[in-house]
Specification:
single chain, 3 helices
């Protein structure tokens, strides 16, 4: 039987060193302040969430009072959109644009749904009353 070749033992473990950066550190441009002034456009100050935007979304997504809730949601959404845009002009970034869009879209869709519902009910009522009058006329002619 031939002699087995035994691999040498692994080297002792050395402490892990951080991997080298994937690019030279000198190649990364860094914006440095010049005379105490930061380069680049001014960053807007982050403000709180616009409360009317949240109320708009709540009114649009819930029909507490049908139609009235959606109209209130649309009005609050338009007002909060104006407030967010006005604050942005003055350098304050109010959050809540997503809430505003949710309120506007859901309010408009729900209001369109209610209007469609009442149009369908009106058309059905007109056709049913016409059919009922035709049936009553037919019943009068066939009764001895």
């Amino acid at each position: 039987m031939p002699d087995r070749i035994v691999p040498p033992p692994p080297p002792p473990f050395a402490p892990m060193s951080p991997p080298p950066p994937p690019f030279p550190v000198e190649a990364v441009p860094v914006a440095r302040p010049v005379n105490g002034i930061q380069a680049g456009p001014p960053q807007p100050v982050r403000g709180p969430t616009e409360p009317l935007a949240v109320f708009s979304a709540v009114c649009g997504l819930t029909a507490v009072i049908p139609i009235v809730s959606q109209v209130v949601g649309l009005v609050l959404g338009v007002v909060s959109l104006g407030r967010i845009r006005r604050a942005k002009k003055h350098g304050v970034q109010l959050s809540g644009m997503g809430w505003t869009m949710t309120g506007l879209i859901s309010s408009a869709a729900a209001l369109a749904g209610w209007i469609g519902f009442f149009v369908v009910i009106g058309v059905l009522q007109a056709h049913l009353s016409e059919s009922a009058s035709a049936l009553s006329e037919l019943a009068r002619h066939t009764t001895p």
